Amino acid sequence: MSLTIAIVGLGFLILVHEAGHFFASLAVGLRPRKFYVGFPPALVKTRRNGIEYGIGMIPLGGFVSIPGMHRPIAHDVDRRFDAAVAEAPALSGPVDRVKRLVEDDDFRATLEALDELEHAIREHELSANATARAEKGLGELRDALGPEAYWKAATWKRLVAIAAGPAANILLALVIYTLLFTMVGGPPSRVIAAVADDSPAESVGLRAGDRIVAVGGDPVSGEELGQRVLESEGRPLVLTVVRGGREVELPPVAPALTDDGYRLGIVREGTGLSLPDAAWRSVEITGIVTREIVKAIGGLFTGQGRENVASPIGIAQASSDAIDQGKEQFLWVLGLISLSLALLNLLPLLPLDGGHILFTLIEGARGRFVKREVYERVSVVGLAIVLLLFFVGLSNDIGRLS
Q: What ranges make up the beta strands (E) of 66-215?
């Protein structure tokens, strides 16, 4: 059950990321074509205002289709219509005309040629596969040449649409940490939440729900209680607790020495911060965690920290373990994964969001578009790096699970 919750949590983080792209694209007028909860093929779908909404058969994350991510080239025409031309050679003329117009950047005439090509395709009996590929090609080319195409949008609009995905994950992390700190961010309480097995606390009969009010007869606060235990150096302490509305003095108990100092073996209930304090603390901790994640990612390029890389399998397992330790630990890990997802996507590598941001800035500064061939070559390198990280993480996970 814990593993199922962990997988759903990871899928939710991906869905939030895609939702960031979707709503930001709508806000700047880019009009996405599809928005799915889960991945296609669709279990159910509906169309509203030109956008297809659906629930995908693969119930993890989400999917957004933004029209015209790249400037069309002749290769796009070959890729989508080669099967139709192979089955109906008479279509080679209309297809070649579309290719020439695309190469000449005569996009208005290209749209007219696409209408003629569509009419010609309907006059021939093609296989289901060739028909589907041709229809997809017609739709993609019209989207890429239309006024709502991503590549034709102003630089700031493209930046907003792409950066909104990682930004949504960062915002979610802030919300998660704010919620966490309203639960456990305050000073420690005096109420026992759990007692460790075979611990000094268990030996004298401390129970979950007890409230420690005095040590050696002296009243103590939550912070003072921890200090008295740490400073005991193993000397026996006499604890007074409130149990069932009555004060009970327990037998002397000697704290045990651990790696963290002297401890009784108790877990105390947390106290939360106020909402404003929790929100500010979430900003501080997000900054600290972000700095550490950036350092860890940077270390990978110098050969350090390889053992810390995890694949989705390891991430799901870590989330599952956190669930077993309580909702607070799960929220902490969920926020950490959300931040990691955002920062990984901001790496300046195609096809990651950071790569699209980098190329958008370059094109904005140059005042002209980068050739599609450059996009494709850089994407191959970026994809190779991402796959390398995945396999490193997978090998680490297999080793840990073994």
A: 192-195, 211-215
